[in-house]
Amino acid sequence: MDFFNEKFLTMRTKLLLDVRGKMKALGLILVTLTSLLVGCLNEEAVETINVYSEPVREEMNISQIAEEISLVQLQNDSGNVIGRVHSVIIRDKYIYVLDISSHSVLVFNRDGSFVSKLDRRGNGPGEYLGLGPVIVDEDESFLELITFSGEGFGVIKYKNISFDFVSFSPLPLITANSVRKRNDTYYFATQQIDNLVDGQKTNADLLILKGGEIVNKIRDKAIDTSGSGFSPFAESFVGNEKGELFASFMFDNNFYQINGMEARPCLALDFGKMGIDNEVGFQPLSKQLEYLAKSQGLASFPVLLANNENVLFFSYIQFTHPNDFYHESNYRFFIKSFDSGASYHTKTVINDLTDFPERFFSKKTFRGIGLDVVMDDYLVEVIVPAFHLNDAEMKKEINGLGEVHLNDNPIIAFIKLKDF
């Protein structure tokens, strides 16, 4: 059973499959924002950003916000070829790549050299029937895989990086696009996929599990989806170095900070007359899609990409091509420095620091790659060579990497932010 395709990728149905490879732009948004607090869970007031207080730039240079770029090529050989990346987890020791074509997790050193591979598909003890979301603990001692196994749906725990089987813990069956864990609590972001809680259908945006049971539903609703769905961004969650956890939900202009059993609005976006009517999120899925197809010029689906001590970073969609949901010209991005207060609002970021890639673009929102986009003082980008090369350019000599081929493993770009 293809677990990610049939369960956690339920929302990526025919609506998405024909548009996965079309996005190539990264933009950053300039807005007016004062006294925005990063840790805002305990604040009484929710800060609001007037998104269109400044016009959108067509493009900007990466050198306006960054001082250097380091490219890390993930090792290529016959034993660790990556087919279709679902998400990338970067920790202090290792880089973890979830490959849903081979149902495996490949582990690389931070220099890109191959280390180990979790590849235990099967129906026996410690094996899984399909690759599900992966959770790596902070000290990288263990890896958890949420999936189906011979024992049913639950969490398989492995010792990292030997991947010796440790335990299996059953969970209620949940379909979601991304999962995070804090202490003994799991957070499932569903992006309005159908789930059952106590026998009742729900399209809640967030299901919270503790002690093996669903203990809370955030933004609960029950809509007619006909068993389908769509995903405007690859992952709903983002964390930071303080251990804070934030979430973005569909048809909602708020960003939420999650703590324990609660999710509280942390930051609100005001699109003015350019915003869609988010109440359509309570309509049947077919009505949602009809509405979006007619939303020429309107803005929606903001997703928080980073919120730490240094920067605030989010994206949104403005429907310049409403019938082509994932057209690259639809995307807008925002980045703001907390040190200087400077911010940018643009559609495209040109790479003027290195010879590859020509442009940067976030995988959090398109191409279906989940990633924490900001780590400390770095923007992080997953560069899939096939998205930057083509049949006419099967290979390219890249300074510092050598010859890169069309079907090579991804390249991780660490973009060092400067004081901007």
Tally of separate domains: 1
Measured by DSSP, the beta-strand proportion falls in: 35-45%
Radius of gyration: 20 Å
Annotated CATH architecture: 6 Propeller
- Low-confidence stretches are 1-43
Secondary-structure-derived class: mainly beta
Helix share bin: under 10%
Number of helices: 4
CATH top level class name: Mainly Beta
Describe the structure.
The chain is mainly β and 420 residues long. It has a single domain (3-417), classed as TolB, C-terminal domain (Neuraminidase), CATH 2.120.10.30. The chain contains four helices and 31 strands. A hairpin with a 5-residue loop joins strand 18 (237-239) and strand 19 (245-248). The chain is globular and about 55 Å long.
Give a quick rundown of the structure.
By secondary structure, the protein is mainly beta. The protein contains 4 helices and 31 strands.
Can you tag this structure with a few keywords?
420 residues, mainly beta, Neuraminidase, 6-stranded mixed beta sheet, 5-stranded mixed beta sheet, 31 strands, globular, disordered N terminus
Write the layout of secondary structure elements.
Layout (H helix, E strand, L loop, with lengths): L2 H6 L5 H4 L29 E4 L6 E5 L4 E8 L11 E6 L3 E6 L4 E6 L4 E5 L15 E3 L5 E8 L2 E8 L5 E6 L7 E5 L2 E5 L5 E3 L2 E3 L3 E5 L2 E6 L18 E3 L5 E4 L5 E6 L2 E9 L14 H9 L5 E9 L3 E8 L12 E7 L5 E8 L8 E2 L13 E2 L2 E6 L1 H4 L6 E4 L3 E4 L5 E7 L3
Parallel strand pairs: 1-21, 2-25
Antiparallel strand pairs: 3-31, 4-5, 5-6, 6-7, 8-9, 9-10, 10-11, 12-13, 13-16, 14-15, 16-17, 18-19, 19-20, 20-21, 22-23, 23-24, 24-25, 25-26, 27-28, 28-31, 29-30
